[in-house]
Amino acid sequence: MTVQLSLQGLNKYYGPVLRGVHAVKDLDMEIRQGDIVALLGSSGCGKTSTLRMVAGFEEVSQGKIILAGREIQALPPVRRNVAMAFEGYSLYPTVTVRENIAFALKAQRESDADVRAKVQDVAEMLEIAGILDRYPSSISGGQQQRASLARALVRKADLYLLDEPMGQLEPQLRTLLRGRIKFYIKERGLTAILVTHDQAEANAMADQIAVMEAGVLQQFASPEQIKTAPANLFTGTFVGEPPMNTFAAKAVTEGDALVLRLEDNVVLRYPATDFAPEVRAAILSRGDVMLGLRPYSVRMSRTGGSPAQVLANQWLGDQTHIAASFAGGTLVLVEHDRADVQVGQSIGIALPADALHIFDPETGRAISHGTEMA
Amino acid sequence: MDTTGPVERVLRGIAISLVILFFMFPIFWILLMSFQTNETILRVPPSMVFEPTLQNYRALITGRLETQTSTLEIRFMSNLYNSFFLSATSVAVGLLLGVPAAYAFARLKFRGSEDIAFTLLSFRFAPPLLVLLPLTIYFQQLGLSNTYGGLIWVYQLIVLPLILWIVRGYFEDIPADVEYAYRIAGHDFWATFWKVSLPLAMPGIAAAGLLAFIFAWNNFIFALVLASADKQPVTVGALAFVTASGIQYGQIAAGIVLSITPTFLLAILAQRYLVEGLSLGAVKG
Question: What is the ipTM of this complex?
């Protein structure tokens, strides 16, 4: 597939270049035509700065932005052919919702009948057909947000930028619209960047997720890869709910077995056959490692396993979250049924080799995921 | 929902009436004075009963002031015209310079923007008398003394900071995303300024313009020192009523009535904007 958007060595400084606040650091990214890419990260991670540089609202300090074969970083927004949906309150207050949505279509000189049909289509998709003739001040925040989204999606553009487009919607509506918007974008073969801090939204809508932190792109991969093979400790602990558990460990050999020594004399022993030889060698050569455990892949065992003591047991209606003190820290695990363990009770923790993510504690980089090399 | 009882409503009505009476009485008294001769005005005790006369207004409009001893030429109507011309032109110039500047201060980040904005505001701190002495000398050297241009320039000290600070607050209240949305939909910076930012800030601009007009209209000291009789506004022209044969209270009252009428009408017309503009722009901004 062809590359639609290419970010090359993108840097953003607020204030003087090299001395100001470095909001985006050496960002390289290629987005394929027809893909939806989610920029995921906490507040201040650089995702909105990146989006605004692509839109042309923020100056690019260094680097290039190439959209559909054109270098656009020096062009004003009007000449970039990019559509954008804003987080909220961006409608023109003096005209109706219908005119707001039709605005760009009219600027592109489409016929009245076409404009009417397209506006109606997109409004029905986003459940705002009933408020088309109202003014922005008389509709709710969620409706304003959907009108802004409609205004972006209705027009033709080389790229669609969606900045937290569903942040103000109720959960049920958000779930419904996620699917519809994805279908709308995919059906037309559009390329879109979605900025969000909602992991479920990123997982549900995106072909690729770009995880950002402190202005640095941490990982750019499919939602499955981000879950199963986080590139580093940050991605591992940031993506996933409840978050990944981490424990410091020392890797040694005892006979043929690979042994991980944790605090409080917790020892995890894995037979030679559990890991591929190169994985085993990589872990052993690092010695001190950081162990990452997804709450969903940790198992509670009543017959054996490493000792732990239950600190909390929460039944959420469809799953149980259990927090236990383990190896000098706290371990969270998820059971799919109601678990009949009491606070204070001793339990065993089973950690199969394929549940382990092993990271370099200094660089944070992943060494292995399960029994495979990272 | 109105939860006040009937007693409270009546008391509130009385309180409001008292306040209105308190503030409006001087104006009402001046209105009465303007229809009286000096003799009836100055009698003791004062009375609200008198035979109304239009002679004060006639004197102002014809420009002939009859006193007990002589007839004086006065230029009240030309003063009134000067007031109008100076205030309107000053506000127009102030808006032309102040609105784009206010936008820049509100939206663009540039070095020293806060300092420049504050410096402009600080023009309002300086007592006019302190500024006037050097200004008089400069104006004489530059040939600006007793010119409309010179006065309009000096009036910017009054109107520009006012316009700048009120309108700036208004521009800051417009979400930047509204402008971004318009720009990304295919319009350049200038089109966005004209079609989105200016119309949205219009109540603030109207309020600032009106206030600036009132301040300019009421100015006394600048025109007193920097202009001679033919360029002076009503505020200065009213001095002519202090004559050798006494103070012409009747004509002063009529002069006041005539000179507050334009600003009064303007304020009524733009009352809605004024309240909105002041509360949203100056306070929130």
Answer: 0.77
Q: Which of A237, A262, A293 is at the close of a domain?
A: A237
Going by pLDDT thresholds of 50, 70 and 90, the confidence category of residue B90 is very high
* CA B50 to chain CA centroid, nearest Å: 33
Q: What does the DSSP 8-state code read for residue B249?
A: H
Sheet holding A21-32, edge to edge: A21-32, A3-14, A62-67, A70-71
User: In Å, how far are B86, B99, B122 from B161, measured between CA atoms?
Assistant: 17, 11, 8
Residue of A88, A94, A107 with shortest CB distance to B186:
A107
Task: Measure in Å the smallest separation between the Cα of A93 and chain B Cα atoms.
Answer: 8
pLDDT tens-digit readout, B243-253: 777 788 888 89
List pLDDT tens digits, range A45-89.
Answer: 999 999 999 999 999 999 999 999 999 999 999 999 999 998 877
In a shared domain, residues A338 and A285: yes
Q: Is A57 on the interface with B (CB under 8 A)?
A: yes
Chain B residues with CB under 8 Å of a chain A CB are 175, 177-178, 180-189, 196, 199-200
Q: What gap in Å lies between CA B97 and CA B117, rounded to an integer?
A: 13
Query: Based on the domain organization, do A175 and A266 belong to the same domain?
Result: no
pLDDT-derived band at A303, boundaries 50, 70, 90: confident
Could you say which residues from 266 to 295 on chain A have a Cβ atom under 8 Å away from some Cβ of chain B?
none
The domain boundary, picked from A172, A205, A237, lies at: A237
Contact criterion met (CB below 8 Å) for A243 and A296: no
- A230, A342: one domain: no
> Rounded to a whole number, what is the largest CA-CA distance in chain B?
76
Cβ-based contacts of B185 with chain A (< 8 Å): 83, 103-104, 107, 151, 155
Residues A278 and A332 in one domain: yes
Radius of gyration of chain A (CA): 25
Cβ of A107 within 8 Å of Cβ of B188? The answer is no
Which of A92, A105, A109, A158 is the best substitution to test chain B (most B C-beta atoms within 10 A)? Answer: A92
> How many Å apart are CA B105 and CA B101, to the nearest integer?
6
Which of A56, A89, A104 lies nearest to residue B185, judging by beta carbons? A104
Same domain? For A231 and A250 the reply is no
The pLDDT tens digits for B168-220 are 999 998 888 899 999 988 888 999 999 889 988 988 898 899 889 989 998 88
- Residue A176 binned pLDDT confidence (cut-offs 50, 70, 90): very high
**pLDDT tops 50 at residue B283:** no
What is the token pair recorded at A223? 């939602």
Tell me which chain A residue has its CA closest to the CA of residue B111. Answer: A15
Same domain, A22 and A142: yes
Of B185, B196, B199, the CB nearest to A107: B185
Q: Using a CB cutoff of 8 Å and minimum separation of 24, what contacts does A169-174 make?
A: A169/A142, A169/A145, A170/A142, A173/A127, A173/A142, A174/A201
> In which domain, by residue range, is A322 found?
245-373
* Total tally of structural domains belonging to chain A: 2
* DSSP per-residue letters across A36-76: EEEEE--TTSSHHHHHHHHHTSS--SEEEEEETTEE-TTS-
CB contact under 8 A, B185 and A151: yes
Q: Is residue A161 located within the same domain as residue A138?
A: yes
Does the distance separating the beta carbons of A84 and B181 come in below 8 Å?
Answer: yes
For chain B, domains (ranges, CATH) are 76-284 (1.10.3720.10)
